[in-house]
Write a structure and sequence with these properties.
The chain contains three helices and seven strands, in the order αβββββαββα. By secondary structure, the chain is an alpha+beta fold. Strands 1, 2, 3, 4, 5, 6 and 7 form a seven-stranded antiparallel beta sheet that branches.
């Protein structure tokens, strides 16, 4: 006979999988009905690939690669990359009005601006990881978040943060192709 404790322990991985996979599969398109023409948004997203370097008794954290995506309200996007200390030329890109509206809707309708700017600590034993920063200003209200990739974080990163992150990563991929 199976003990209830064993059933409970077996159910935990299943529940975790459901919480991670189901939102990814059912991702409904965010409605743009709440976005109006008076909305003013600006976004600055940065991504850093960090490595810990040990100097005997001390450690230092350094970025191998840093990417910065800036999206103002007019859609005139800039993308900058610094790799191994060298900056590549800035890339300009025009974000279509529909894409900017969808991004604004994602941020506005999901309550992204209500996320507290809590600190998402990094596990102390992680040697190499990606760190993200996002500053969103929507109609004068700013949110500034910093987090590490989920594998390096000590806490759960909210799905809305990772959803906005994947949308911004998609825009970067479109710019650099």
């Amino acid at each position: 006979m199976v003990k209830p404790v064993m059933l409970l322990l077996g159910a935990i991985p299943v529940l975790v999988a459901i919480f991670f996979i189901v939102p990814q599969l059912i991702r409904p398109e965010v409605s743009t009905s709440a976005v109006n023409s008076d909305d003013v948004i600006s976004i600055e997203y940065d991504k850093q690939h960090l490595k810990k370097v040990s100097f005997g008794l001390t450690e230092s954290l350094g970025a191998d690669k840093t990417e910065v995506l800036t999206i103002p309200n007019d859609g005139e996007t800039t993308y900058q990359v610094t790799e191994n200390g060298y900056s590549a030329p800035e890339v300009k890109y025009h974000l279509e009005k529909l894409e900017l509206t969808k991004l604004t809707a994602l941020i506005k309708e999901t309550g992204f601006t209500e996320i507290p700017s809590d600190y998402f600590p990094v596990k102390p034993d992680v040697q190499e990881y990606d760190k993200f920063g996002l500053q969103v200003t929507l109609n004068g209200k700013s949110v500034n978040l910093h987090w590490a990739e989920q594998n390096a974080s000590q806490v759960f990163i909210p799905p809305i943060v990772t959803q906005v992150q994947s949308e911004l990563d998609r825009i970067i991929a479109e710019i650099i192709k």
